[in-house]
Amino acid sequence: MKTNQKVILHQYGLILLMLFVLGVIMTSCSKDEASSQEELPELTSEGKNTFGCLVNGEKWVAYTSFTIGGPIALEGTYNLSTRGFYITATRDLDDQNKFETIRFGIQNLTSAGGYDMAATHLVTRGFTDYAGNYSCSMYYVDTTLVHNVLITKFSHAEGVISGIFNMDLINSACPEDTLRIRQGRFDWSMVIFN
Predict the structure, then answer these.
(1) Using CA atoms, how far apart are residues 192 and 194, in angstroms rounded to an integer?
(2) What transmembrane ranges does the database entry give (predicted)?
(3) Are residues 126 and 102 in contact, defined by beta-carbon separation less than 8 angstroms?
C-alpha cells in the first residue's frame, strides 16, 4: 500500500473514532437532561452552580446542554461597589419544547440574611418563556406579593453565594396566570465585578 493511502486510511479512522466518541457524549447528555429534571438540587453552599425551584408545583431545574456560544444554565454577577447581585437561570429542554429563564436580583447584598428582591426595571422580569408554553411570554416580580431571598452563604474568600427564595410573578396581560415560585434554591460560584 502506498504511503498516501496509509495516511488517508489513518485519517479516516481518526474521523470515525471522533464521530463515535461524539455520539457517546451526545447520548449521555440526553440521559443527563432527563435525570437533571427529576429532582430539585440539594441545598448546598459550596459554589456548585445549581439552581432549582417549583413553578406552580412543577419541578424546574436550570439545565442547558453543552453548545459553543449557546445558553448557559446559571449566570450571575456581584458588583463590589454597588453590592448588587443578579442571577439568571436557564432551562433549555429541546425534547420537551422548553426554553425558559428565571432571574432576580438583590440590592445592597452585604452578608448572609434575608432580603427582598430588587424592584428595579432591570430585574423585575422574573420569568421568560421563549417557547410559547405559557399564556404570556414574560412574568414580572410583584413587590406586593411574595418576593424574598434568604442568603445562606455569602463568602468573598470562597467565591460563593447561596440561598433559598420564593416569589410570585405576574403579567397584567394575563391576570389569571400568577406564577408561584416556591422552594427555590441556588448555589453559585460568584463572578465579582468592581
Answers:
(1) 7
(2) 7-26
(3) yes
Report which of 80, 106, 53 is spatially closest to residue 191, judged by C-alpha positions. Answer: 80
Distance, in Å, from the CA atom of 124 to the CA atom of 139, rounded to the nearest integer, reads 8
**Alpha-carbon separation of residue 44 from 50, 160, 166 (angstroms):** 9, 10, 17
Distance CA(44)–CA(158), nearest Å, equals 14
Q: How far apart are CA 17 and CA 87, in angstroms?
A: 39
Nearest partner of 60 among 96, 11, 24, judged by Cα? 96
In terms of Cα–Cα distance, which of 105, 65, 97, 114 is closest to 188? 105
Q: What is the grid cell recorded at 155?
A: 463568602
Angle at CA of residue 40, ends 92 and 65, nearest 5°: 25
Which residues have C-beta within 8 Å of that of residue 45, sequence separation ≥ 6?
A: 152, 153, 160, 162, 187
- Measured at the alpha carbon of residue 188, what is the angle toward residues 183 and 194, in degrees to the nearest 5? 130
Contact 125, 101 (CB under 8 A): no
Residue written as cell 449557546? 70
d(CA 121, CA 50): 25
Could you read off the pLDDT of 14-70 as tens digits, one per residue?
444 444 444 444 444 444 444 445 799 999 999 999 999 999 999 999 999 877 777
Q: Is the pTM of the predicted complex or chain greater than 0.85? A: no
